[in-house]
């Protein structure tokens, strides 16, 4: 795999994963009650814990995107 192909692959991975993170964020912001009702059908969880779980999950996902995809993509761009 060449450096250009790896750089392009990481760039697309960043875009797709940021899109998924935005989708998740918008869903929680604008349809939180519906999402909470759907999740509470399967797991009995109070609303505060539900919010904390989603907030922590989004933060963990964002850190993963930055560490494992965005930083290597930037490094490959710097390397040339």
Question: Could you explain the architecture of this structure?
Answer:
The chain is mainly alpha-helical and 80 residues long. The chain has one domain. The chain is built from three helices and no strands. Helix 1 runs antiparallel to helix 3. The longest helix has 33 residues, at 47-79. It is elongated, with a radius of gyration of 17 Å.
Concise structural overview:
The chain has helices spanning 3-30, 32-42, 47-79. The chain is mostly helical and 80 residues long. It has one domain.
Describe the secondary structure blueprint for this structure:
Blueprint: H1 3-30, H2 32-42, H3 47-79
Helix pairs in contact: 1-3
Which shape, going by the Cα principal axes?
elongated
CA-atom Rg in angstroms: 17 Å
What number of domains? Answer: 1
**Proportion of strand residues:** under 5%
| Element order: H for helix, E for strand | HHH
> Fraction of residues in helices?
over 70%
Unreliable segments of 5+ consecutive residues? none
- Biggest sheet statistics: none
Could you give the distance between the termini? 15 Å
Secondary structure tally: strands = 0
> If helices are DSSP runs of H or I spanning 4 or more residues, what is the number of helices?
3
Main structural class:
mainly alpha
Mean pLDDT: 96
What descriptive keywords fit this protein?
single chain; 80 residues; elongated
């Amino acid at each position: 795999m060449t450096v250009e192909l790896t750089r392009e692959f990481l760039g697309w991975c960043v875009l797709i994963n940021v899109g998924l993170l935005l989708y998740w964020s918008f869903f929680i912001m604008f349809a939180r009650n519906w999402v909470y009702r759907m999740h509470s059908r399967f797991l009995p969880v109070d609303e505060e814990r539900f919010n904390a779980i989603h907030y922590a999950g989004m933060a963990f996902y964002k850190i993963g995107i930055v560490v494992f995809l965005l930083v290597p993509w930037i490094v490959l761009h710097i390397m040339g």
